[in-house]
Structure formats: C-alpha cells, structure tokens
Amino acid sequence: MARGLKILEILAGADAELPFSSLKQESKIPAPSLWRLLHVLRDNGYVIYDPERHTYRLGYKFLYMGNILLDRMGSRSEARNHLRKLVGLTGETAEFSGRLRDELVLLDQEESPQAVRLFSRIGSTYPYFHATAPGKVYLAQMPAEKLESVIERIGLPSITEFTVTDFDALEKELRKIRAQGYAIDNQEMRLEVFRVAAPVFDGSGRIVGCLGVAGPSFRLDRDKAKSMARDVKTVAGELTREVSQR
After folding, report:
1. How far is CA 241 from the centre of its chain?
2. CB-based burial of residue 82 (10 Å sphere; 0-12 exposed, 13-18 middle, 19+ buried)?
3. DSSP symbol at 182
4. Helices (H), the chain
C-alpha cells in the first residue's frame, strides 16, 4: 500500500509524464515490484501508460473521485451557480475547465437554452492548449521558460485551418490575453465553435481553472466576444473571490 501511494505521489508532483526508469530511481522500488504495482494501478484506472512514449501519468479516476469530493463539500453547487449565471447573461453554454498535466479537462458545464447549442461531455480532454480559449488562458499565465518547455513538449499542430501554429504569433496573442484578462478561440479547435474564457485564481494568485462560454460561430464573433468577455470576466472574478476566501 505504501509503495503504491509513493508512486502516485511521484506522478502527482512531476511536471511531465515519467518513464519507468525515473519512477524506479525516485521511488527506490525494485524493478519487479514496481512493474507489478504499476500494472495494478493501470488496471484500476489510477495510472495511464503511453505505449508510444513509454511513460506513465495519473489516470482520470482521480478526476472522478475529485468530483465526488467536490459534490460532498458543496463546492460544485457554488461553481454551478456561476455557470448558470453565465448562461443567463450570455445565452450560451457555460463551461468550467481545469488543467491536468498536459491536458485540459472539462470539469463542469451548464447547457444553453438555445435550440442550436454546443455540448461537450464532462471529462472530455483537450491536449492542445494553443487551440482553445481555456488553454490559451493557462499558457498566458506561464513564465517564458515554462511556456517554451510546454510548447516544445506538446507542439503547435494545426487542428483546423484557423489554428495559430507560429510561436511568435502565439506569444503576441498571449501578451494580449494577459493584458485584457480573457482569451478567445474562433474555430481553432473545432470548426463552427467559438469560445471565450477567463481565469479563476485561488488566494495565492495561482490559476485553478477557467470559466467561459462556448457556442456556434454563426451566433458569435469577435465583436460580440467583447461584450461577452465582460460578463465572463465578471463572473470569473466572483468565483475567484469565493475560492480565495476558503
């Protein structure tokens, strides 16, 4: 039991996925025992193995367990109230997303009442931070050295014809995001989908998630995004104050 917890703690504290050799070195667990423990953790959803990179990372079962904990603590109901407020203000689907290692995860969502609306499954992951508004919010909060490291690891692939794939152009956009306090993506991750997102911080000023709205691009554009961004920033600020007071 203690050895299994040690492995999970190492993976939780790592900045990136870890190969077997690194886990062995940090945990001081003999190779045969480490193999057995990793297989048990993989089979039960606590660890994910990447066969291409031959690396390990925490599994999404922790997200599931975390959601249960949030429900029991009442935090989810507080966040849900902010999502509902955003839907009321904008008429579009409201989303709350967070970062899990090198991926964005949709943690909660309140659907738009519109006949044509965006729907994404809670727990969905997005590996390309540069192509979606919440991801750009996270990138904008990173120091230059950390940003270069993340982009080097993840890359800047073209997801759609509108995706920013040039690092200099991305840096320029991130500076603008830091200054204005919100990010947008206009069909950069999915065609005909427009998003606006703003950061949510804890009491220490660390970003803990992104609050935003998403909808079809035929209803949303950059001009409308400015008015929607004011609502998104306002509600994200309210949630930040609540989180900071805990």
Report:
1. 20
2. buried
3. -
4. 2-13, 20-27, 31-43, 61-73, 75-90, 133-140, 144-154, 167-180, 222-244
CB-based contact 135:128 (threshold 8 Å): yes
Could you count the other beta carbons within 10 Å of the beta carbon of residue 245? 7
DSSP string, 79-132: HHHHHHHHHHHHSSEEEEEEEETTEEEEEEEE--SSSS-----TT-EE--GGGS
pLDDT in tens, 115-154: 767 767 777 778 789 999 999 999 999 998 889 888 888 8
Give the bridge partners for 84, in sequence order.
Answer: none
Residues 6+ apart with CB under 8 A from 165: 130, 156, 157, 158
Dihedral angle of Cα 161, 164, 166, 169, to the nearest 10 degrees: 140
Tokens of 106: 């949709």
Q: In angstroms, rounded to a whole number, what is the distance separating the alpha carbons of residues 34 and 20?
A: 9
Per-residue pLDDT of 175-201, as tens digits, reads 999 999 999 999 999 999 999 999 998
Amino acid at 122: I
pTM for the model: 0.71
